[in-house]
Amino acid sequence: MPSSSYFTSERTNYRVRGSYSLRLARSFGLGDGCFWGKRAKHVFLTFAVVVGTLSSVGCARKVVVPSLENQDLDPAEKTLAAVPLKLGAISGSPGTGAYVVSQNPAAGQQVAANSKVDLVVKLPLQVPSLIGSSVTDAVSVLQGLELKVAFVQQHSSNPFAKTKVASQNPSAGSLVHDGGLVTLTVSTPANVEALVGLAAQEAAYSKLKPEYQKILNLFLGDPGVSRSMADQDMPNSPSAPSPSGTPPK
Length: 249
Description:
Layout: H1 4-27, H2 38-58, E1 62-64, H3 73-81, E2 86-92, E3 99-104, E4 110-112, E5 116-122, E6 125-126, H4 135-144, E7 148-155, E8 164-169, E9 175-176, E10 181-188, H5 193-196, H6 210-221, E11 227-228
Parallel strand pairs: 2-5, 7-10
Antiparallel strand pairs: 1-4, 3-5, 6-9, 7-11, 8-10
């Protein structure tokens, strides 16, 4: 049987707990008589629910949605998991090599951790073989695929050689995203000025959009300087090559 000191200690603890609970009840405007009543219990239960709800809402962690555009689908999912966020609905054209073209929520928005991000994806383009093509035909093909073009000159020892694509990067068959850059290494004879005007005589030249004509004119006007549509500030384009073969002034 417990000793008398045990019962004394328990009575003391009971009084302390009861006194604390009574003070708490009074702080809610409850009298001594109704402390143990139904109203007090209801108030305490309501208080506990409200505090728990506010705590869970206040502690919800916010994260910033990362930019996923132009990322392949697998790396995009890993980027989300690291935040942490979850991959939501995927629409568009999923498949091998699919990459992100848009997302919802947009990059930079703040959302609750582990929220879902919906993605729209697209399949990449296959780079065609351009080696051996005339430079104008090659540019026309890239324009049709909405790919950007860059030029690098390669001198030819044959003085009668035509301006042809000697190599390309990426290589034929490579997969690229919309608006990707394809660099053409163009073989030119030493006396390139005699061939500059011939480009304007090709049927494909007249079908080129202004931005494609511009980069081609810049390169043909000075093949020694590499040109790229990826450059943000291209200088003003010289006039189109003269059909007579006279270089632009």
